[in-house]
Model the fold of this input.
Amino acid sequence: MTTTTAGGGVRARRPRALPLRYVVRKTVTAFGTLVFVVIVNFFLFRVLPGDPAKAFSPRGRNADPNRLAEIRRDLGLGLPWHEQFWAYVKNLASFDLGVSWGQHAPVSRLIGERLWPTVLLSGTALLLAAGIGMWLGARAGWRHGSRLDRVSSSGAVTLYSTPEWLLGLVLLIVLSDLGVIPAAGMQNPLSELPPALDIAWHMVAPVTVLAVVYIAEYSLIMRSSMLDERYADYLTTARAKGLRDDLVMRRHALPNALLPSITLFFLTLGFVVSGAIGVETVFNWPGLGRLTYDALRGPDVPLLQGLFLTFSAGVILMNLVADLLYPLLDPRVRAS
Amino acid sequence: MKTARSIAWARRRVALGAFWQGYRRDREGLFGLVVLVVFATVAIAAPLLADAEGLSLTKATGPRLAPPSLAYPFGTDEDGRSVLTEVIWGSRISLLVGLAATVISMVIGTLVGIGSGHFRGFGGGVLGRLTEWFLVIPYLPLAIVLATVFPPDVPRIIAVIIVIGVTSWSGTARLIRAQTLSIEERPYLERARALGGGHWHQMSRHILPNVMPLVLANTTLTVSIAILAETTLSFLGLGDPLRMSWGKILDNAYSGDVITSGAWWWALFPGLAVVLVVRAFNMCGRAIERVLDPRLRELA
Done:
């Protein structure tokens, strides 16, 4: 930790290519996780005690026999397990996720349609939150014990203890009283605004809720990695050179403290998924999260299966990106 | 007669006393503890504080959607039930599910963590991989899927407890694994191995007591995750439909008219209860970490 060069040197150093073996190993690991998800996904919905068709049927034991036959055919019940699994994997390879029971449309198309609103909403909130959260966390960690630190840490822990959708629900109740900002949906067909502006206008409330909670998360991460760097020897050197305190932080401590935060930025994308499910539900945002909530009403098993796979694949992919990015940013990892 | 075991227990008692001395001086930790004691008392004394009949739809006597008043301090819901009664009885289910799920989660996490750290070769490798997989898979979609496919003849509340317990252990396992790996290198474990101690002896007599403080510190943080998970699952309609929990009240409020009717009290009070309890568990967890980690104590 203390033997690194100061952060100012990072920019000057030419980035070296990653060793191929490292890339291959990380990719294989990510693929292995994906295979595990596929296996879990397959067996969870099939290997149930009793008759799965009856369990999933909306009317339970008094279900319509034709409907039961349809469910059995969809699940491939009756065939031996390995044949069912093989058929499932073959379909997956061609992005065939089956047909939704509730909406009678291919699951892959439904997910494709709902993907971009989720990416738009979560992405905007995430970028906003990462910027503000890391700035706030760095300040708080640098001035450990100051008033800013105490207020922001205590606020962050409180928000961290709040489910995103709960915050959204309270905001919605307040907003519907005031009626200023649109509180639900993504577009208003009657609106006179250009479509892009109308979407942005509808994003204000859900993005605020998500960003506030993510800011809390990222500021806590950044604060603790700043605390780790705070007493490092290279900072003493920088101070001894006579640098202003602010410059010591920005040029020397911040770049090094950013490294663990950037990894965590990618690794915590799993909780972004749960944030999206709750907040999209409350704000009626037509994304994957709202689709999950709607799929639960049936339950619409093929759709739920496809959604679980999509969420997991997204998070696994982001983890891989983090793994590949990290050694490029941190020479210490590259060396080992 | 002093046996090795009695010496070890005497040492643990002293360590526990020293821990309490440190914890007592931590204001944040004490505040969290007081909040938790209050909520635990409310949950245990629920029958004395509010009549359970107040939860019944048919026996509700209050006006519909009345704002907070002297008779109904937290207001009433759509069916004329007192929200205060619901929050009091809800604390039982929310805390029970949170604590029970945490027990499952800690047992799995500790066993997998110690196992993957202790055993070299195939067994340890499999456990390590399993932990990594569960760390990566987003927990809420997994919990949703598990709760959906859970056999319908199992009581719903037990299903929710198992689902949360099974999906939340991976963080603990990773922590315990790292600690186990560092303990494995210590001389006393080498001594135990040289004297012919078996795997069970090494794990239960040497590793477990050493990772226990870490397990306990992690427990409080896991409880807060478990309570949040229960609230979210109930809100999504996957909870026990017959038992009132804080998440269930919020689900009722969302499915009912809370947004258009502006009945803020219906969502605010159960919401505050969740945040307060989770926050209190987090405070205790942070305080325990501060007391156990001398590095943090110097900074404070």
